[in-house]
Amino acid sequence: MDAEAFARKYPGAVVFTHGRKGASVMLAVAPHRLVLKIDGTIQSENVVGLLKDMRAAGHLASDDFNALIDLTAFTGVIDWDEIKKISDVMPKGASRTNKNAYLVHDTFLAMVAKITSALFPQTECAAFTTEKEARAWLGWEC
Fold it and tell me: Residue 77 maps to which CATH number?
């Protein structure tokens, strides 16, 4: 999915993108919602950089949101040091009502999603293979 198609899919959201075809990260932020899509072989530090930029701009100031993390087109390498940095940048879900829905294409990424729940102990995390299931679990319209 290119950046324009991503932005059209989330009207009204603030959209940020980084990278190029085959290696990109796209982020859409709306009140109480965050969508992160990672495509291709994007380097984890680019994800961290984008999240830091959004945090600095005030778009991740709220601690009350649900997130859809789409890893279905991710083909890169998991860098656990960078994953830890992501957890340092992201709000922690102090309200204990936040959910992270991971959209995955295989059991390995489902396991990775389960492991990352340890980095967000106050956020409920689950992995899904269809966007419809993930959105339903998040309580978003389907």
Answer: 3.30.750.24
